[in-house]
Amino acid sequence: MALSNKFSRRTFIRTGSLGIGALALCPALSSLASSKADRKLGIALVGLGNYSYGQLAPALQHTQNCYLAGIVTGTPAKAVEWSKRYNIPEKNIYNYQNFDEIAHNPDIDIVYVVLPVSMHKEYTIRTARAGKHVICEKPMALNARDCEDMIAACKKADRLLSIGYRLHFEPHTIEAMRLGQQHIFGKVTHLDTGNGFTYRGDPNAWRLKKAMAGGGGLMDMGIYSIQGTRYTLGQEPIAVKATQEKTRPDFFKEVDETIFWELEFPGGFKTTGKSSYNHDWSYLKVEEEHGKFELGPAFGYGGIDGSVNGKQMPFPQIIQQAAQMDDFAQCVRQNKVSRVPGEEGLKDMKVVDAIYKSLDSGKWERIG
Ligand code: NAD
Question: Ligand 1 in contact with 74 (CB < 6 A)?
């Protein structure tokens, strides 16, 4: 099936206008709690880089349960620009030094951490200690141990923690979860997935520094392939064997370029996956005993497509980030654990840690 050239013709719908079918896919959106249901919850974005600027702030113009109430930035010029563009009052603008004062600001209910990976742990923990709920971007942290510390800090502060896994709110993805987890065409017999892009950006960017990014294509893109495998099967892998390829060692001095892996699941079933900063991949292909389905593009936010037994899936495109943030705001209102809590980020990071271990040892490594 041709997967390209469709998105220009397809309508992106706002979460506010989701139909009954889509509401069934996002049950948390369908019932409002009484306590805070009458007001939108305030979100503060920490880190006003590409993702905040290009995706999250625009998505927050389409949310029903939350709004862009505040910002945290180290760049005064950005504070001025954002304040004008989004009508953010001075009292809701923070920098990295006075960030903890956010504890006293009743306008801010949720802090969304959109920083380089090495800063996720610190700002998640500071947010929880300030008494605010947290959304933390992917990959959750540099390693699984840091994820555990973040989860513990949020539990101790009695605050909810969610990871920016927007695809759990995306209709094609939700359908792939249903087809895989419910064995609609029998047992899964084959699963292959890959995610990557050809990195041509700034050679000095934090994404290429191990201390700030934790790794390269695996941390940034491979996390989606790992997620895709786990949410399609609804099972946790127990072991992994990985190999890597580096065609531009001068560019990727500190971090991985392309990694290939096999995951083993209980009972011995194996899947294949890969990540890259040197190939444009975004797919998830699954075969079951009596049918098959695939997603492609599978992981971006420019439009997801998919097919079941060769027939295109009939779902609309949504603003994934708006659906994700609205759902978390609703979880906060209802004091309900998100469908993508910190534990979900931790499970992926356990796989990532084992992949790096396998690259070092050249052997199969246990996960967790
Ligand atoms: P970016 O480099 O564009 O932005 C990072 C921001 O952090 C900048 O505003 C920068 O000023 C700020 N910052 C503060 N201290 C810094 C420091 N010491 N060094 C560097 N920057 C510093 O990055 P991005 O693309 O916006 O990514 C931010 C996070 O969002 C990452 O965790 C990334 O994986 C995630 N992300 C998620 C998605 C998604 O689809 N869920 C997409 C893109 C990025």
Answer: yes
Which CATH code is given to the segment(s) 3-166? 3.40.50.720
Active site residue 224: yes
At 6 the three-state DSSP class reads: coil
* pLDDT at 272 exceeding the cut of 90: yes
Tens of pLDDT along 30-62? Answer: 444 445 667 999 999 999 999 999 999 999 999
pLDDT digits (tens, 9 = 90+) for 117-148: 999 999 999 999 999 999 999 999 999 999 99
Q: Hey, what long-range contacts does 121-125 have (CB within 8 A, 24 or more apart)?
A: 121/146, 121/149, 121/150, 123/46, 123/99, 124/150, 124/153, 124/154, 124/161, 125/149, 125/150, 125/153
301 CB less than 6 Å from ligand 1?
yes
What's the rounded Cα separation, in Å, for the pair 295 and 313?
9
* Residue boundaries of the structural domains of the chain: 3-166, 171-317
**Cβ of residue 48 lying under 6 Å from some atom of ligand 1:** yes
| pLDDT of amino acid 170 | 98
Please tell me if the CB atom of residue 316 comes closer than 6 angstroms to any atom of ligand 1: no
Q: How far does the centroid of ligand 1 lie from the alpha carbon of residue 48, in Å? A: 8
Cα 80 to ligand 1 centre (Å): 19
- The CATH number assigned to the domain with range 171-317 reads 3.30.360.10
Model-level pTM? 0.92
Distance of CA 70 to the CA centre of its chain: 21
